[in-house]
Write a structure and sequence with these properties.
The chain is of the alpha+beta class. Helix content is about 35%, strand content about 30%. The protein folds into three domains: about 1-90, Rossmann fold (3-Layer(aba) Sandwich); about 100-120 and about 185-295, 2-Layer Sandwich (D-amino Acid Aminotransferase, Chain A, domain 1); about 120-180, ATP-grasp fold, A domain (Dna Ligase, domain 1, 2-Layer Sandwich), CATH 3.30.1490. The protein has nine helices and 16 strands. Helix 2 (about 70-85) packs antiparallel against helix 3 and helix 5 runs antiparallel to helix 6 (about 160-170). The chain is globular, with a radius of gyration of 20 Å.
Length: about 300
Amino acid sequence: MNIGIVHEAPRPTKSSRELLKAFRELGVNAKYYRISKLSGFFGENGLRIRYGKRIIELDAVVVRSLGAITTTEQLLKRIGLLREMELKGIVVVNPSEAFLKARDKYTSLLLLSKHGVPVPDTIVTEDVQVVVEAVKEWGTVVIKPMIGSLGFGSVKVNDPDIAFRVARTLLSLGHPVYVQRYIEKPGRDIRIFTVGHNVLAAAYRIAAPGQWKTNVAQGAITEPARVNEELREIALRVADILSLEYAGIDVAESPNGGYYVLEANVAPLWEGLARATGIKPAKAIAEHVVNLVRR
């Protein structure tokens, strides 16, 4: 069995190294591939995937990152490559359509809301006045990039004038404005890690003193979290709706005791979760991928 770990970093990232090790411990041949060096060929000779100058044969790939996307054409090529792999019979985790949906905050939360999953009130617009009116109505909002990770680029705003300036800047760069009503959290949120149809682990992500962002990359610390039946059901529904074979699902606790899904991460990092819980997601992901190939 041949497994590829796909990323764009010049050298394997920490999570990629852990996956390589986990697959090899299962007796599986696993290699690291940069997505920019993967090419798709098709025509009279069928479908072929090449890495550099070499044709490669794979049973499955775990996609950890599509890299820093700078053009629509680049995104289409990289998603198209994953689709060609799927057409060739290669198991792609997470699948190409799921990867695209979950990376797009607009589409992913829209689908979750349509299926009755609680999400924050959200507006996506190219009209600066709509943003200003949202701040006047909701008080405090978070303006986020539609495609982004680790909390970078998210801004909490409660002043209509500041919201106006932020929105004008984004629109001048050709970026639509993604606005969410701010959920008052108890200084933390919950990262729930799912693999297959199971909740593997969960951790509280506790914001650094004086900060509101709960991303580990932004200085948050993690502690183990207990997953009750309601949280378990929400997390598994999110993974099912978005067709995610594994995911990191971020959930906020609301002041009234309910929950809101903030985001579903299609290629989540897990260092903070592993540190808090002692659970190693790489092993569970590797076992799940091997089982998918053997089906």
